[in-house]
Amino acid sequence: MANNKRTLFIKRRLRVRNKLRRVNAGRPRLSVHRSNKNISVQLIDDVAGVTLAAASSLEKDLGVVGKNNVEAAAKVGAAIAERAKAAGVTEAYFDRGGFLYHGKVKALADAAREGGLKL
């Protein structure tokens, strides 16, 4: 298969996810998805197969609809930290998927850490 952008993305995503499976100690996974226009995050319990909490830049109550920037990602990160606390979760593994830890993904993770979530 040719090493185009999509193939490299899938290889990165599988590498990150497989590493998380090896070191997972029963903690939930904070999974990030970034599109060209929005960013969303889910707190997933892989053992039970359920989503414990979620946040997205599409939510109107966050006030970032239509904004595709680092500030919007930081607000989403703060929102997921708050919702994780409400769900009783204080620690999680950060699953960046195939996205590079830079820019919006980094801002989301930093805001979640500042909100009290240990990643």
Automatic annotation (TrEMBL):
The gene is rplR. NCBIfam families: L18_bact. Belongs to the universal ribosomal protein uL18 family. Part of the 50S ribosomal subunit; part of the 5S rRNA/L5/L18/L25 subcomplex. Contacts the 5S and 23S rRNAs. This is Large ribosomal subunit protein uL18. One of its GO terms (cellular component) is cytosolic large ribosomal subunit. GO terms for molecular function: 5S rRNA binding; structural constituent of ribosome. This is one of the proteins that bind and probably mediate the attachment of the 5S RNA into the large ribosomal subunit, where it forms part of the central protuberance. SUPFAM superfamilies: Translational machinery components. InterPro entries: Ribosomal_L18, Ribosomal_uL18_bac-type, Ribosomal_uL18_bac/plant/anim. Keywords: Ribonucleoprotein, Ribosomal protein, RNA-binding, rRNA-binding. It comes from Histidinibacterium lentulum. GO terms for biological process: translation. HAMAP family: Ribosomal_uL18_B.
